């Protein structure tokens, strides 16, 4: 009798004290909980990654700079959508023109009317081809956007690796 | 000497405006020195196909012209620069204050208005998942440089120098407070004019 009563007391204690504490249940999360934007997921450790790719977008203005510098995202300024579309077009055009030669992302700067495209290139082609392609893109883009376009390229031997992820 | 005394005797009206107007007549003998920016010189007739060249802009020395019209006077010239990057604003402030000191301008105030953060909370996914959002923010830092008691030609030179060296990603707003001569019809108060007339009639 005493044993049964002890059991019932334990069950009552269980029900009152440990009702909501330490319960084990299945946690099902929706697929898009984690952020995946502009970041390379950690892998086996054999994939070389540049500084730009290794740092996540929340590090911008902290450990990273800006790839496209213009005034349209400031308070009280307009034209943000136009500048973004122009930037995307320029990035795709140059990625295609200098296919396989780009070491890192482009940096696009706007100073007044002038559009400056700064690129890091690998030494894949002979120099006279680089000169021709640079002149060709400058001429094409300046006719397309009706503003002076300048390209400043810097040559590298190979891609600069920051980490292996 | 006489010109400065004339300024002291005439009561001056301040008017904040963004454009020039040639109504100031404080120093009739003063001359305005105009600096024509290099872009307005030499209008060349070139066919449209060759106009857009990505080469260096023509750096020719600007001509100095002397005219008889009186120069504008500004009580305050306020230059507000805004950017996403505070370090860029720090270096630009150093540059602008150095330029002002070299030109001999009086820097009234150099201060930093509080930053403005615009936050957006958007849905993370294209279709559903209302509970999962992503937050973005755009920070705008400001810096204000106020210069007091400057002439029109000096302000033009200073602003042109400052604006040619504006870094990318930095926007500038310029506010000028001009000084004008008080119009003749309100020089004397109405009640004193009326009392003079009454005394004259009596």
From TrEMBL, chain A:
<dbReference type="GO" id="GO:1990904">
    <property type="term" value="C:ribonucleoprotein complex"/>
</dbReference>
<dbReference type="InterPro" id="IPR026146">
    <property type="entry name" value="Ribosomal_uS3m"/>
</dbReference>
<keyword id="KW-0687">Ribonucleoprotein</keyword>
<keyword id="KW-0689">Ribosomal protein</keyword>
<dbReference type="GO" id="GO:0006412">
    <property type="term" value="P:translation"/>
</dbReference>
<keyword id="KW-0496">Mitochondrion</keyword>
<keyword id="KW-0809">Transit peptide</keyword>
<dbReference type="Pfam" id="PF14955">
    <property type="entry name" value="MRP-S24"/>
</dbReference>
<dbReference type="GO" id="GO:0005739">
    <property type="term" value="C:mitochondrion"/>
</dbReference>
<comment type="similarity">
    <text>Belongs to the universal ribosomal protein uS3 family.</text>
</comment>
<protein>
    <recommendedName>
        <fullName>Mitochondrial ribosomal protein S24</fullName>
    </recommendedName>
</protein>
<dbReference type="GO" id="GO:0005840">
    <property type="term" value="C:ribosome"/>
</dbReference>
Automatic annotation (TrEMBL), chain B:
<dbReference type="InterPro" id="IPR001848">
    <property type="entry name" value="Ribosomal_uS10"/>
</dbReference>
<dbReference type="GO" id="GO:0005763">
    <property type="term" value="C:mitochondrial small ribosomal subunit"/>
</dbReference>
<feature type="domain" description="Small ribosomal subunit protein uS10">
    <location>
        <begin position="78"/>
        <end position="175"/>
    </location>
</feature>
<keyword id="KW-0689">Ribosomal protein</keyword>
<dbReference type="InterPro" id="IPR036838">
    <property type="entry name" value="Ribosomal_uS10_dom_sf"/>
</dbReference>
<dbReference type="GO" id="GO:0006412">
    <property type="term" value="P:translation"/>
</dbReference>
<protein>
    <recommendedName>
        <fullName>Small ribosomal subunit protein uS10m</fullName>
    </recommendedName>
</protein>
<dbReference type="Pfam" id="PF00338">
    <property type="entry name" value="Ribosomal_S10"/>
</dbReference>
<dbReference type="InterPro" id="IPR027486">
    <property type="entry name" value="Ribosomal_uS10_dom"/>
</dbReference>
<dbReference type="GO" id="GO:0003735">
    <property type="term" value="F:structural constituent of ribosome"/>
</dbReference>
<keyword id="KW-0687">Ribonucleoprotein</keyword>
<comment type="similarity">
    <text>Belongs to the universal ribosomal protein uS10 family.</text>
</comment>
<dbReference type="InterPro" id="IPR040055">
    <property type="entry name" value="Ribosomal_uS10m"/>
</dbReference>
<keyword id="KW-0496">Mitochondrion</keyword>
């Amino acid at each position: 009798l005493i044993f049964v009563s002890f059991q019932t007391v334990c069950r009552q204690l269980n029900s009152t004290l440990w009702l909501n504490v330490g319960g084990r249940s299945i946690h099902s999360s929706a697929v898009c909980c984690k952020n995946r934007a502009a970041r390379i997921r950690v892998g086996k450790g054999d994939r070389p990654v540049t500084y730009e790719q290794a740092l996540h977008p929340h590090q911008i203005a902290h450990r990273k700079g800006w790839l496209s510098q213009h005034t349209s995202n400031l308070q009280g300024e307009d034209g943000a959508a136009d500048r973004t579309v122009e930037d995307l077009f320029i990035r795709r055009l140059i990625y295609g023109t200098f296919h396989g030669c780009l070491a890192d992302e482009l940096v696009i700067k706007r100073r007044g009317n002038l559009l400056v495209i700064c690129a890091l290139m690998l030494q894949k082609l002979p120099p006279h081809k680089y000169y021709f392609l640079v002149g060709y893109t400058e001429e094409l883009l300046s006719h397309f956007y009706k503003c002076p376009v300048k390209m400043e390229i810097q040559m590298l031997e190979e891609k600069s690796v920051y980490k292996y992820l | 000497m006489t010109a400065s005394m004339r300024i002291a005797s005439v009561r001056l009206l301040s008017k904040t405006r963004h454009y020039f107007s040639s109504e100031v007549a404080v120093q009739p003998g003063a001359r305005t020195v105009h600096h024509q920016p290099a872009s307005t010189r030499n209008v060349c007739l070139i066919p449209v196909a060759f106009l857009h060249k990505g080469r260096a802009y023509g750096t020719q020395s600007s001509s100095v012209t002397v005219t008889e019209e009186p120069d504008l006077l500004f009580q305050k010239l306020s230059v507000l620069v805004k950017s996403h990057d505070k370090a860029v604003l720090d270096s630009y402030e150093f540059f602008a204050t150095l330029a002002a000191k070299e030109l001999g301008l009086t820097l009234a105030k150099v201060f930093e208005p509080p930053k403005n953060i615009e936050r957006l909370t958007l849905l993370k996914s294209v279709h559903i998942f209302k509970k999962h959002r992503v937050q973005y923010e755009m920070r705008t830092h400001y810096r204000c440089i106020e210069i007091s008691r400057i002439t029109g030609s000096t302000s033009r030179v200073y602003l042109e120098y400052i604006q040619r060296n504006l870094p990318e990603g930095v926007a500038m707003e310029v506010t000028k407070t001009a000084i004008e001569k008080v119009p003749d019809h309100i020089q004397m108060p109405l009640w004193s004019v009326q009392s003079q007339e009454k005394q004259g009639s009596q």
